[in-house]
Each structure stands twice: as C-alpha cells, then as structure tokens.
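note to self — DONT lose this again. spent like an hour looking for the file last time. sequence + predicted structure for the chain T wanted, 223 res
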Amino acid sequence: MPSLSFDQAYAEDRVLEDGTVVHLRLIQPDDKALMLEAWERLSPESRYRRFFSAKTALTPDELRYLTELDHVSHLAIGASCERDGRTVALGVARFIRLVDRPEVADAAITVVDDAQRLGLGRLLLQRLIAAAAERGIERFTCDVLATNDAMRGLLHSIAPDAIERPDGTTITIEMPLAGAVIEPDLVDRKSPVYRLLALIGRGLNAARTTFLDPPSDRPHGGR
C-alpha cells in the first residue's frame, strides 16, 4: 500500500461547535474498552438507528470485529476528547469494502448522544470519504432508517448526487465520493488532508494520481 494520509500515524484535533476539542485517529485493537464505554452511553434510540434492532450489548466477537481492522478494506476513524483527566469516546465512522464491488463500501457513522448536533458526524463523514478515496473506493452505500431525517440530510448535503432506494422501513443511499462538498472550516488548510479533500471535490482521478501513486521521496503519511 502506498504512503497514505490516513495511516496508523494519522492524528488530528478539531474544535466542535460547543468548543470541545475532539481528537481523531484510526481505531486500534486496544480500543475495545473505549468502544464499550461509548456503547454504554448510547441511548436505545441511537442504538436502534445504528443496528436497526433493539440491541442491548456488544459481544466479544463483535468488539473484535469492530476494532481489529486492516484499514484497507475495513477502516474506522474514532473521535474522542479528554474529560476529567480521562479519554472519552465520542463517535466512530467506518467503511467496509464490498467483496463483489471493491470500488464500493458500506459506510456508517455513530455519535454518542451527548456529542450529537455539534458537527461531529459531518466531520467524521468527510474524513471517512478522504480515507476511502485514497484507497480506491469510489462510492459509499449507507443503510439508514426512513425516519432518520438527520442522517439523510447529512448524506445529501455532502453528496448532492446521492440516490435513495427505499426498502420498507429502511433506505439505502448510494453516494459518489467524487464531487463531495467540503467545508473549509472543517479542515486545516496546511494539512495533507485538506489537499486530499480538495482533490476529491474536483474528482477522484486527481486524488488517485496524487495519493495512490505518490512520488518516491514523499514523506510517509504525507507529513
């Protein structure tokens, strides 16, 4: 895998709408306890929106699946902050590449209730788009409840060309990553992440040329 902006060294701090400083990085195997603590802070409604069922617990196998990732076909970006001297998880965005359509990936975002409506979901989705694009993924599919207007609105605001396919109580939204709407205030303009997102906004071919086939002297991770 060529040098990437979203690799094991990726780390970024941003400020949410309420002034909370949020730390972004890739999910690691030792994040199981952090993820379990975040799960306990999700309301039943938020759990249902994520899993489409009244799920009450995460099994050890599920925790392994959610944290032990290759970050190529299954990647997750976690968001956390510091509260009272300890790290607290706030949200996760992940994609899982489809086996039969490797240019497409299922995507999902989860934000704990006390961090919702602060811009974190939008921030995580934009970073997930960038990480997917530099790995050759061209489209996301997102399954959402038909009643989840907030998530549907978020997806359409970032991908105006997204297509909805209703299926009973759920909707599958397929969104192209090329031409994604990028808000400058969500990105440090001096970072390689901003450069990647800007290229995605112009089209995936430019992003692929720059990030999938980087010059041999480009520093690891774009730093």
